[in-house]
Queue: 4 jobs
Job 1
Amino acid sequence: DAKTTQPNSMESNEEEPVHLPCNHSTISGTDYIHWYRQLPSQGPEYVIHGLTSNVNNRMASLAIAEDRKSSTLILHRATLRDAAVYYCILRETNFGNEKLTFGTGTRLTIIP
Amino acid sequence: DAMVIQNPRYQVTQFGKPVTLSCSQTLNHNVMYWYQQKSSQAPKLLFHYYDKDFNNEADTPDNFQSRRPNTSFCFLDIRSPGLGDAAMYLCATSSTLGHQPSGSPHTLDTQYFGPGTRLTVL
């Protein structure tokens, strides 16, 4: 799996938007960009994923650069419950190959 | 709600004493995974079952074994736990194309994690 680079930590004020960057300069044409987050004392949970186009769901938005070498996870209005470690993961969706290789992630702190 | 369940949430064992961690799922997913997460580190895949087929990661120690007696259950056996095996053990499931339960709101190819079992080795 190709590697990703994320800042170790970020802070944001409550009720403000948060932009979490991820660099993946060695991404291949078939790699999907997945984001998971891990709240304290819980297992990771899926947030969003995309291939080329920007994606929106009820949790977040994913903005993917035109060259696909970077992406940004956007939380539109951060709450205290969004404090977590956010992992950006590249995943080649081969039939039968469903590995997730977690990087170090970004620890997001929300300031009340 | 359909979910991934891990029991117990906290497990204490003695150095060298075999221990088994359990995972069950009500999602009817065909793939199940075991991850190890040490303190302040990212989760690391140990192995996974694709249906009944066992897939071991190359760097998973022989001390770790797994069993999947049916679709719903998967077990992680640590034959002789060492102090370095103290960690959070995470079970996850996913569904691949062709196995998605009809009417399920879950997304293909994403993984659903349980809350984890924190293992302490004394």
Job 2
Amino acid sequence: GAVVSQHPSWVICKSGTSVKIECRSLDFQATTMFWYRQFPKQSLMLMATSNEGSKATYEQGVEKDKFLINHASLTLSTLTVTSAHPEDSSFYICSARVAGALQAGELFFGEGSRLTVL
Amino acid sequence: GENVEQHPSTLSVQEGDSAVIKCTYSDSASNYFPWYKQELGKGPQLIIDIRSNVGEKKDQRIAVTLNKTAKHFSLHITETQPEDSAVYFCAATFKAAGNKLTFGGGTRVLVKP
């Protein structure tokens, strides 16, 4: 099956620093990737849609200057949390859509990246 | 936009019994309904999905049913095992929505040995 890899799986940083999380589709090309955040015991909340070669589309309430998304290739999207603060501590998960998928769905999720901001 | 409600939020069953989780959705345009299993500290794993052109789909101990008229779909796990303990999420989407999944609130399933 399709594999989506996230790195790092966990990161601890000091308040005010920036953290980059990578999302890679290992055995398929993904024109679209999605970034979610998940707080403890809660559901996944979509943050933004990352489109290869174009600007990301952010959901309402998500600061685009705070969460920078770059989708430079068909297999890699990155999420950078800039000037991180303790309230940014969360579980960040990406998913990737198979390029050329004709129907809705066909999304594959990464293993998630746990960010802790001290 | 789409809204997905999921019930119950927690479910405790005895090993060997069945577990049923129900979801309702609001947007009649939704045509793809996946179910994900999430273990602690991991990303969601797709366990089964169903499209709007079928009413039921089964994969070994797992089955999903869809009622388009009532706009609800359910996950059925039979002969539950301790390794089925996890959080389960339903979701809905349709292609015109850019494949953006709307998730239910999740159900924490505990299978007691």
Job 3
Amino acid sequence: DAKTTQPPSMDCAEGRAANLPCNHSTISGNEYVYWYRQIHSQGPQYIIHGLKNNETNEMASLIITEDRKSSTLILPHATLRDTAVYYCIVRVTGTYKYIFGTGTRLKVLA
Amino acid sequence: GAVVSQHPSRVICKSGTSVKIECRSLDFQATTMFWYRQFPKKSLMLMATSNEGSKATYEQGVEKDKFLINHASLTLSTLTVTSAHPEDSSFYICSARGGQGAGTNQPQHFGDGTRLSIL
């Protein structure tokens, strides 16, 4: 079973920030949180990952709560091309395996 | 960096044919590769983990004789769907991760998938 839960869908206006939440309450102390997105008929695209500090790269920012039980992916200025399914993943403990949950279907509206 | 190439992107075959899908890491050495299957409007389902030079580890319910995996080099893994039937039609996606030691938390990088249609 996936170790993360996400809302099934969200809408965001173009140009506004998209904030995608993820709950990972059973995460252990040394497990990272990974975020990917999948645009229709393509493989998942890596976005960002983090352990406990907030992270930022050219695509997004990742905010992880102090207790590490949840995180938020922030797309600062969403565009129509950001419409995709976003997956938050925590690896199966002691392995490199990902178990994908259902993700959040983000629709960016013009 | 971290590009994974998957080939072919689409294949249509007759029932009973065996189909081979290739997954290559183009700019890094992939010690571990993964194969996933995805049905329409569903999430990715892990099929197997493939380590270079050793036998693949299959997830529960995945037939290893139906889905043959070979990981003969650090840049190539193949998935062969043997004697394919219409129910094997799906979107197959590979991923790769590289390195050990200090890089153990590095992410997987995914190919663009192969859409397999069995008539």
Job 4
Amino acid sequence: SQKIEQNSEALNIQEGKTATLTCNYTNYSPAYLQWYRQDPGRGPVFLLLIRENEKEKRKERLKVTFDTTLKQSLFHITASQPADSATYLCAPDATDSWGKLQFGAGTQVVVTP
Amino acid sequence: GAVVSQHPSWVICKSGTSVKIECRSLDFQATTMFWYRQFPKQSLMLMATSNEGSKATYEQGVEKDKFLINHASLTLSTLTVTSAHPEDSSFYICSARPGAGANVLTFGAGSRLTVL
């Protein structure tokens, strides 16, 4: 069966440092991989999408890598700030998914001043 | 940008009653919307795909008679939890895909249902 694995333990990090989150998937052949941010009691918000033929994607202080051989994506928050504290969800996405995204359980990031 | 509005944001009801949650796309048309459920500290679980003008398609294990979905227009989908019980208490979130191409979803803010 399809499985998406993200670190279940919260990532505590000091302000200014780089947070690195991992997303591993099995029994997927994603054409894309998406990352979302979810704050407590709110719906997720789209952050980044990376395609299978892209090794790396950046958006401001965010960087995503995608290794289809390892079946893994890494999500980096550089120069982290307390406002980055949230749960981050990954979603591998196949071209025939018709928008039916399945999400990992997410990794909570806590940035302390 | 694309906005999905969800209402109510929270609701408390008695066991056995029905609750309706609305999901609206405010600045785009959505032929398809998706309903998710999320329990505390757990992942979003896709419940069903809401299709404008036709029946919803439900994920395995989701009772279609329990969770009624209606998608009567291109901007509105509703989820009705019928004969709610305490185990239905959860966070329900709808989403829609505002653009063609990649399946980027815009989510509503979610509806917290508490069944007493």
